[in-house]
Every structure is written in C-alpha cells, then in structure tokens.
Task: structure prediction
Amino acid sequence: MSICISFEGRLDAPGRVGELVDFLMTEAQRRRWPFELVYHHVSGVLPSEAGGLLLIEEYVQGIELRPFGSEGLQMLCNREGVFTRYVEIPHTLIGSPVPDSEACYLQAPNWVRSTHPDGHTAIAGILRGVKDRFASDLCVDDDTGYWDTADEQSLRFSYHMMSSVASAIATPAAIEHLARTLGPPPLVPRLRIVH
Result:
C-alpha cells in the first residue's frame, strides 16, 4: 500500500539545474539516502494531443533520490528547466505507424509513491525546499493534504486507513469477490521508466 505525491513546474532559472542537483545531493547525503545522478538523452517519437507523432530530441538531467519507505524521487529537468519525466513505451501502444528504429515515449507526470508516513513527510520536505529555493511555481498534489496542512496526525491516519482497506481486501475471499464483481483485469503492457 502506498500513497503518491505528484508535482509539476519549472526552475525559476533553467541554468540552476546544477545548483538544484547539489542541493538535493547534499540532502540525500545528510539523510543517508541512496541517490543517482541522471543525464539522459531522449530521442524518438512522442504522441501528440492532435493524434499524430512528434519527433523528440531532448536531454534531461537531474538526480534520483531514494528516500527510505518510498520509490525513487526523480527531479529531472529539460533544457528549459521544466521538471519532466519520460516513459519508454512499446510501439504497439502508438496508434500511428512508427519506424522500428525510433523509440516511443510518453511524457508522464512527476510522482513518487511512499509506503510510510515518514517517507511522505521527507518527500514533502524535499519538495518544499525545491519550491523555496529553485522553483517558486512548483505545484504539488498530495491527496493526504499534508502538503497544505503539515498535519502529521492526519497524514498518519490516512496511511492507517489505506493500510486497513488494503488488508481487508487482501483476503482470498475478498479477492475472489472482487474478481467475480469486476471481471478479469485488462491486459496492460508493462511500462519501463527511462533513467
């Protein structure tokens, strides 16, 4: 069971990516979190909103932090300083014909899942530091409300409730009931996050 925090925005000054990475690397070292510096060349096609394909040739750089109790928090920026995340997808998911030589991508939301309230508060703290120092327009979506309230008691209650619900439906009888009610799950190809 986990809860997501998502974010979007851009750096106040695109040239400050290096400073952002230094800040986040220092935070990771202080908290003893593993981290990885990321510099990735994205080259291929991206579906457009109009239904066609756009050629994409872009470099993203930043850092991935691995807070304890959470998935990796990717803070990656393109040349314009926009926080961005690309997911490589199979050719079969694109409605238009794509040459086999081209990689296919989706531009995905920036998010991180946390399995524990402590990881959630740590991620919110990191994002607050990024907003205060580097990206004043950073928008954070936190379903628990913690980002707006900093109410740890309410956050812990949210995790407790989600865990209770997950435990309740994890029994064989509950799973069997859900399967009968909902029918078989759709087949969804596995997506790979591009680092």
